[in-house]
Amino acid sequence: MVYLRVKRGRNMKNHRHGDTITTIKSLPTELLVEIIAKVASHSLIDLCNMKLCCKEFLHVAEDDYVYHHVSMEKFPLVPHGWFQGKRESFFLKRCGESGNSEMLYREGMVQYFSSLKLKRGLENLKKATIEGHDEAKYVYCMILMSGKGEDERKQGFDLLCSLKGYTCVRRCRKRVKSFIKSLWLNNKPVFANHKFSLLCRSGTCDGGKLKNVSRSSWVNYEDGNDIDGLCDYCSADYELGLFSKMFEG
What we know:
It comes from Clitoria ternatea (Butterfly pea). It contains twelve helices and no strands.
């Protein structure tokens, strides 16, 4: 928003600044909510600046739709030490209540892997996945693929395939790994040193030589190696092996 960068000083600049605000204030409320939500999704600081412009902006910025889309980039990944003030606590609570995908993802990670609130954590990861959060989708599909039921394993595999290519998967893995390192893990036995059933049972694909060995063989490969020669199921086995390795040690 250009007018947010206008410096106060000369009367002409103040006049233009006021005209711009007046023009935007005349927009329908629904459109103004969309504009402010767009600003919020890119920068929390810009959202705060908009709130300071006038009472109308302050009021519209409190819409659930804005909290649903607001960026949480300025907040630490793990909630330890977040709730030190009423404003921070209120903001994060509103983000969660409004279905902010990043907030759902962070809460889900802490609940599932640290607080042992497995059902609630998995539900929040699922909600964030539905909202299109890639890291949440990555974790959620890994959890599903590590299960014993064929239906949930198939659902997890399909979700993994829906991520946009190996570059996206690798990016998600890197970010999730960073998050897990910052957690106090109480649920790592779910993955660490756990023997999973291989998704690929074919003997004809390029990954066939690894079918009858332990899952640890998958993670002996240097992360980022070309896996184009593997079938989709072998690639999923490979990815689950890398994910489980995050919880070792």
